[in-house]
Amino acid sequence: MIKGKKMLVVSAHAADYVWRSGGTIAKYIKNGAEVHVVVLSFGIRGESNDLWKAEGATAESVKAIRLGETKEAAKTLGITNIEFWDLPDYPMEPALNEEVRERLIRKIREVQPDIILTHDKNGEDILNPDHNAVSRFVFACSIQSNSNGVRIEGTRTTKQMQLYGFEPHQTELSQFVPGSLIDISEVYDQKVAAMKCFKAQGHLIEYYTERAFLRGNHIRRISGNQTYRYAESFSNFFPVAGEELY
Ligand SMILES: [Zn+2]
Q: Does some domain include residue 243?
């Protein structure tokens, strides 16, 4: 049941949440979930190659474009709760310090999410150390958020939430194992429109439309539901736990 669910999405760079979970986000919003997105950086150094080709490009000019693009994409997906933390990228790991740790735990406790979506933890993104650093960081913060001993004034400890990892770009090379396949057919057009907001990474649009098609094949085969056309996949941080086998 999606209605009433609370979801927190933590994206290393400005467009990661769109490529890898834009359909799921749009679907959750459309069906009555509360979705919050934290964009840790604009990916100025690492994921804006085409923008740097413009004559006279500066970090500030690239940032302004990335901010405009990601705001437009978020709007297209129906996202109203989004924050841009503007951390440095490539590398991001040194910026994931004590201050940011407390800020993220505070955010997790404020949202009290049922679900956290972020970068894959189980594999190793072969070409993007920022994604790996963010995955480890978000996982650690989520566990600390659940702990009564981690005292942060004005916050309330969270209950264990489910964490899911984005499918990385180089799926097999990054040892990604799909744990969940989510049908995004009803919002697929919205996802494509959101992806088109990013001018610096136009080559990825074709890749992620093909990926949605491929995962659509997998979800039909595994679920038996032939109405599913497009899907996104996520890794499961934890095993499925409940009273029955699904
Ligand atoms: Zn990224």
A: no
